[in-house]
């Protein structure tokens, strides 16, 4: 019976679909309800292997909970809010080659279908149906498909409307100026999920030092405003375009790019003149704090697109500036070409403004010289600069020139110094990104200040409630708990609207759309309602309907009975037991999820647990749809089978770890599953029947059968323990690979045709199929049904049977394994083909030393004290001491039960019983002797024996 995964898997898919196997409805009081969710996909492209594990891991856990007897809800929906889909459609309609390549070559969209993708929902529906749903069903995900929805459904929008009306009423929303990420192409705010590049970028608030040049302000941006007294010169790009502009009734000189940024940041800007940077070179600007005149020098390293395009130089405290100044001093020809007198440059000396321990008067000079950095192009310069900045920030004390701030550590006074400079009119502010940020539509993203609605995540009482959610929920892995608290601490106002895009309109101002991260905070609750809400007219889903649903009959004057009926289903499923999500979403979506649940629902409905997921690689590189570096699920399933795809992904890493899809390793997993199938089919009976109804004691079982059954109980227990912690790799490794080791040994040790052996193998197979059903559901269900008459997913998860756990039996067999390994090691080292093997068991006095170790524990001093109370051992002195140390090391990491079992072990009997096996194994005569029974000892080895490590001689 050959292993044909495609045939097996298609039959089970059809069966699940026909029977509605995974459709979950309330049943009872909810005590056995398990609600498992995963972020709904954004179908702006196809599903690839990078997504597959994201959905497969929670499926494994859902299947496990069902076998544990729980009523499990595992739903999915589709996130279409925002603009990425709109942007993809626009690029398609424009015929952009890169977009067409992704659609045709990466996602195999047929040419005659492309026109169907030229509307946002046409585009979304194609990828939902042809990629995500098809892929999820092919993988065997146990989803309740009745509950799917898209986030622009009318009823879902009513649900989001209720949420935002409630938040506004509770004063969790506010309108005002706020910095936002702003796409200059779409002319609207964007968030992380809308970005093509710069996803990790955050905007920083720069201080603009208002240098003067005649009647104009020349603003220069810095994150270290306290260094203003150390400015010795400024730099511009002589070839870039600069402007004279009126900025809020003042004349400013800055780069052309800067004026656009200032305009976005709520400044009134009007450009009156453009010129090249060279026109500024050689002129001097006035430091607003010191009144000093400093020259402007040419520099190609100045980026006119960054901040104002004019850079101030503090060579005493910036390694970059120090080296740039040295290079300017050494380039007289260039200075003269731009009309700068080299003598002016030569006269520039660093001006120190603070003292920092470990550095001299000019810290920047010391930093580069100690690191032997001599060029601005040295890649080590960045580390040197950051090290000095950190040291100065945390320990640098300002000089006496700083008045009330003199002697203070920068860390303690930077903000106050900055505020004083703003109040004095010396400083201004400007926002800028730390790196380039590009929207998915291809437009540049800048920081803009907009009059917008934002969520007040900075409210202290809201933060406190959200921290209680974190405190009470399970965080997997545990070390992520602090990441949630950290995010809650720094999170401030969050702009929650867009100018346009798919999604729900802001209820009180339909010119705006609620942005994607803000409309996806409590949608998990909507899963519990979705099928039945379709029966209710949209116009009935008003504020009072949802108030009654979520807050009960007392929340409104005349509650809708349909809402109260739905309330029972919501309360049955809630809270979400586990949400499986990506690590990078802790800093936004996941923490928003916690905030909104803390505010809108009572504590019993707060999230119970979150499992974090790692990132997927493909042959060692990050997967990328835009670069075509992906593997599509359909292709992988066609090549290997869905069970192989699932099993590889689940075995390669724990959920929170990164994994790497490698074709050669996937092929190896396919071969391993096929071998498993072949072994299993050899055990299938003519009439299916479960071994769980049998009494093992009534079977003709031998020592080795009882050993395998005991190992099986340990496997059951350890697999369940791993699953309880969502350690899917540990669980699958234990159930499959770990027990395979035991089976290999079992097959070597016994006659597999014995009735007792056949029963033992069938019982082990039946147990393992139940354990493996969450991981390889197609194969496990098929084999289990052929073996017993029932699919594996329809029978309970196995429990370890204490009557079958035998520590002494496992210990005895481990001694035989160890002896076999030791003989093989000697054979390998000596190259001997043995005719005879002598085995010597340690003398009784050595066993007495072990008894002392077992009595007092792994403490050599205590063991010797115990041993010396025996006159026979006392006479042996040093020999006892040496042996005690060896035996203490042996038991140091063992539990008390194992040590006690070792104390009762008859080594002689164990090895003698194994002689027939050993003789077959080595094709040699095997003899077992006691060291102190005057045995034949041709090799002089008998005295080397120690308890549990017999001496061996080979002839």
Q: Quick recap of the structure?
A:
The protein is of the alpha+beta class and 955 residues long. The chain is built from 35 helices and 32 strands.
Notes on the protein architecture:
The chain is an alpha+beta fold. The protein is built from 35 helices and 32 strands. The strands form ten sheets. Strands 2-1-25-26-20 form a five-stranded parallel β-sheet, with helices on both faces. The radius of gyration is 37 Å and the shape is globular. The mean pLDDT is 93.
Number of strands: 32
The share of residues in extended strands comes to 15-25%
Q: Return the average pLDDT rounded to an integer.
A: 93
Q: So what's the oligomer here?
A: single chain
Order of strands across the main sheet:
2-1-25-26-20
Give the low-confidence spans: none
Radius of gyration computed on alpha carbons: 37 Å
| Protein structure class | alpha+beta
End-to-end CA span: 46 Å
Helix content: 40-55%
- Gross morphology: globular
Question: What count of helical segments does DSSP give?
Answer: 35
Largest sheet: 5 strands, parallel
């Amino acid at each position: 019976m050959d292993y044909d995964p495609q045939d097996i898997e298609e039959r089970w898919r059809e069966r699940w679909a026909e029977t509605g196997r995974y459709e979950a409805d309330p049943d009872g009081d909810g005590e056995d309800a398990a609600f498992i969710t995963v972020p709904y996909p954004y179908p702006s492209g196809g599903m690839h292997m990078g997504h597959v594990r994201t959905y497969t891991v929670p499926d494994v856990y859902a299947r496990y909970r069902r076998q544990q007897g729980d009523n499990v809800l595992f739903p999915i929906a589709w996130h279409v809010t925002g603009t990425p889909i709109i942007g993809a459609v626009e690029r398609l309609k424009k015929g952009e080659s890169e977009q067409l390549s992704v659609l045709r070559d990466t996602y195999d969209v047929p040419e005659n279908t492309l026109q169907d993708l030229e509307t946002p929902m046409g585009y979304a529906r194609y990828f939902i149906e042809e990629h995500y749903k098809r892929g999820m069903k092919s993988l065997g995900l146990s989803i309740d498909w009745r509950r799917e929805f898209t986030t622009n459904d009318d009823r879902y929008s009513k649900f989001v409307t209720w949420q935002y009306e409630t938040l506004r009423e509770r004063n969790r929303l506010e309108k005002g100026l706020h910095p936002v990420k702003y796409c200059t192409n779409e002319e609207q705010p964007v968030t992380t999920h809308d970005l093509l590049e710069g996803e990790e970028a955050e905007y920083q608030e720069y201080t603009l030092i208002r240098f003067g040049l005649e009647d104009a302000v020349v603003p220069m941006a810095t994150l270290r405003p306290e260094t203003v007294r150390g400015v010795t010169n400024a730099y511009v790009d002589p070839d870039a375009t600069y402007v004279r502009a009126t900025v809020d009734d003042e004349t400013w000189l800055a780069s052309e790019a800067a004026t656009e940024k200032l305009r976005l940041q709520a400044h009134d800007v009007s450009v009156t003149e453009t010129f090249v940077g060279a026109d500024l070179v050689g002129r001097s600007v006035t430091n607003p704090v010191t009144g000093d005149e400093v020259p402007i020098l040419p520099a190609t390293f100045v980026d006119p697109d960054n901040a104002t395009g004019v850079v101030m130089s503090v060579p005493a405290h910036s390694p970059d500036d120090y080296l740039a100044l040295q290079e300017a001093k050494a380039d007289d020809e260039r200075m003269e070409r731009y009309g700068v007198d080299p003598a002016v440059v030569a006269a520039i000396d660093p001006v120190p403004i603070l003292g920092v321990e470990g550095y001299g008067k000019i810290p920047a000079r010391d930093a580069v010289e100690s690191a032997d950095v001599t060029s601005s192009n040295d890649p080590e310069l960045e580390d040197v600069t950051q090290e000095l900045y950190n040291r100065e920030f945390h320990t640098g004390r300002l000089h006496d020139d700083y008045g009330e701030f003199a002697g203070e550590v920068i860390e303690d006074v930077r903000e106050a110094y900055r505020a004083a400079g703003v109040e004095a009119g010396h400083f201004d502010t400007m926002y800028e990104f730390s790196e380039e940020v590009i929207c998915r539509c291809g437009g540049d993203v800048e920081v803009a200040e907009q009059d917008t609605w934002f969520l007040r995540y900075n409210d202290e009482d809201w933060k406190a409630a959200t921290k209680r959610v974190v405190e009470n929920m399970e965080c997997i892995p545990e070390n992520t708990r602090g990441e949630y608290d950290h995010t809650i601490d720094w999170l401030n106002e969050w702009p929650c609207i867009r100018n346009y895009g798919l999604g729900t309109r802001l209820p009180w101002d339909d010119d705006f759309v609620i942005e994607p991260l803000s409309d996806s905070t409590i949608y998990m609750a909507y899963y519990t309602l979705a099928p039945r809400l379709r029966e209710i007219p949209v116009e009935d889903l008003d504020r009072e309907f949802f108030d009654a649903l979520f807050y009960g009959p007392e929340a409104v004057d005349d509650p809708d009975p349909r809402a109260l009926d739905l309330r029972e289903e919501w309360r049955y499923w809630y809270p979400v037991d586990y949400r499986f999500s990506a690590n990078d979403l802790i800093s936004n979506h996941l923490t928003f999820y916690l905030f909104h649940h803390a505010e809108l629902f009572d504590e019993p409905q707060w999230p119970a647990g979150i499992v974090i997921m790692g990132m997927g690689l493909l042959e060692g590189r990050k997967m990328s749809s835009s670069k075509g570096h992906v593997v599509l699920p359909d292709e992988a399933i066609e090549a290997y089978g869905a069970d192989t795809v699932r099993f590889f992904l689940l075995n390669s890493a724990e959920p929170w770890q990164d994994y790497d899809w490698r074709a050669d390793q996937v092929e190896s997993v396919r071969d391993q599953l096929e071998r498993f199938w072949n072994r299993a089919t050899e055990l299938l009976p003519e009439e299916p029947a479960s071994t769980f109804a049998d009494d093992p004691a009534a079977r003709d079982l031998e020592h080795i059968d009882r050993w395998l059954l005991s190992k099986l109980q340990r496997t059951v227990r350890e697999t369940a323990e791993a699953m309880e912690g969502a350690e899917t790799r540990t669980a699958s490794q234990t159930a499959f690979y770990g027990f395979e080791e035991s089976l290999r040994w079992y097959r070597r040790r016994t006659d597999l045709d014995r009735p007792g052996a056949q029963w033992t193998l069938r019982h082990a197979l039946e147990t393992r199929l139940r354990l493996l059903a969450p991981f390889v559901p197609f194969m496990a269900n098929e084999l289990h049904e052929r073996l017993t008459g029932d699919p594996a997913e329809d029978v309970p998860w196995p429990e370890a049977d204490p009557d079958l756990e035998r520590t002494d039996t496992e210990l005895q067999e481990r001694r035989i394994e160890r002896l076999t390994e030791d003989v093989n090691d000697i054979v390998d080292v000596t190259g001997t083909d043995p005719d005879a093997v002598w085995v010597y068991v340690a003398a009784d006095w050595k066993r007495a030393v072990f008894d002392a170790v077992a009595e007092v524990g792994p403490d050599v001093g205590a063991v010797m004290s115990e041993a010396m109370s025996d006159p026979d051992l006392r006479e042996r002195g040093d020999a006892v001491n040496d042996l005690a140390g060896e035996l203490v090391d042996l038991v140091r990491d063992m539990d008390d039960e194992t040590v006690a079992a070792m104390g009762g072990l008859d080594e002689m009997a164990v090895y003698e019983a194994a002689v027939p096996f050993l003789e077959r194994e080595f094709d040699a005569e095997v003899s077992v002797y006691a060291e102190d029974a005057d045995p034949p000892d041709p090799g002089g080895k008998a005295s080397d024996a120690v308890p549990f490590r017999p001496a061996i001689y080979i002839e």
